[in-house]
Amino acid sequence: MDRVNGSQIQTQLRENILEKANAVLKGKEKSDVFSSKINEALKEVANSQSEAEKITKDYELGKETDLTKVIMKQQVASVAFQLTLNVRNKVLSSYKDIMNMPV
């Protein structure tokens, strides 16, 4: 059985996000590539949620016996969703601020 290490997952997620953000900020990528990166990130969040759902179902059916692994997958999916939701809220807030600026 594979053990899930929470700190490794957090480090990988953090490095991945920072790498994508730095590439965009340095101007190495164009706006169409930026939107594809956003789509990739959203797909990763969806995949983590489906993995958590699958492993939870497997645990309930008795196919998976490592409860720690199940809980970690659920937490990773939850944190990824919360991060996505917070980013969306910040983007909407910024958009509203920009739209309310006098010209």
Topology:
Blueprint: H1 6-25, H2 31-61, H3 67-99
What would you report as the Rg, rounded to the nearest angstrom?
A: 17 Å
SSE arrangement, N to C: HHH
Q: How many DSSP H or I helices?
A: 3
Structural class by secondary-structure content: mainly alpha
Work out the count of structural domains.
Answer: 1
Major sheet description: none
- What is the overall shape? elongated
Number of strands: 0
**Percent helix:** over 70%
Query: pLDDT average, as an integer?
Result: 83
Q: Termini separation (Å)? A: 60 Å
Which regions are unreliable across 5 or more consecutive residues at pLDDT < 50?
none
What's the quaternary structure here? single chain
Tell me what the structure shows.
By secondary structure, the chain is mainly α. The chain has one domain. Helices cover 82% and strands 0% of the residues. Helix 2 (31-61) runs antiparallel to helix 3 (67-99). The longest helix has 33 residues, at 67-99. The termini are far apart.
Keywords summarizing the entry:
103 residues, mainly alpha, 82% helix
Give the structure's gist in a few sentences.
This protein has one domain. 82% of the residues lie in helices and 0% in strands.
